[in-house]
Specification:
Structural class: mainly alpha
Oligomer: single chain
Number of domains: 2
Number of strands: 0
Largest sheet: none
Strand content: under 5%
Shape: elongated
Distance between the termini: 43 Å
Radius of gyration: 27 Å
Number of helices: 4
Helix content: 55-70%
């Protein structure tokens, strides 16, 4: 599939179509090109924003403190590690 094989059709009311047509003309592109570019920009901004985790200063400090704290395995992890030592053969 090449970049132009996929289709995406939408229905617009006349007012929205007129807005897109005017904006496309100002940009010197087709309406389809304008809508494609605008939708992609919006989608990329949304994906970038939603893939980030934002913490308050208090939460960030708690997170860093927990990473810096000494790790002590709980009983379930100790049992799993012991089982792995018995059953896993290293080559």
């Amino acid at each position: 599939m090449t970049a132009t094989d996929a289709r995406f059709d939408i229905k617009l009311n006349q007012e929205d179509k007129n807005i897109f047509a005017q904006a496309a003309a100002l940009m010197g592109t087709t309406m389809a090109g304008f809508v494609r570019t605008a939708a992609k920009e919006k989608a990329l901004k949304l994906l970038e924003r939603e893939s980030r985790i934002t913490l308050s200063p208090k939460d960030f400090k708690a997170f860093v403190d927990s990473l810096d704290a000494a790790f002590t395995p709980n009983p379930a992890l100790r049992a799993a590690m012991e089982l792995a030592r018995k059953d896993v053969r290293r080559v």
